[in-house]
Amino acid sequence: DPDVVLRVDGGPNAPKAFAQPPLVGAEAVARGARSFRGAADRVEPVIVNGGPGMLVRFPALKILAAFTVANGRIVEIDIIADPAKLRGLDPA
Asked: What is the number of alpha carbons within 13 Å of residue 8 lying toward its C-beta?
């Protein structure tokens, strides 16, 4: 969606790269997605709260992304990178 919003919850223990204000707009979100280049082999599709998502596993960090879709377009992306919040992640 041209007005897509990307929010990151890095928590107090995540790398500083995750401490950022929300990105708004397709161009800003696309620029932010560049940091995931080369991570395709680490991405697993998952269901998050009944909707589409992805889990990205880096050697020292997991990142969970949940997508909100409306009218066939991604309108929100919520990324959780706080290790404390992901500790209890159901591997199923």
From this structure: 21
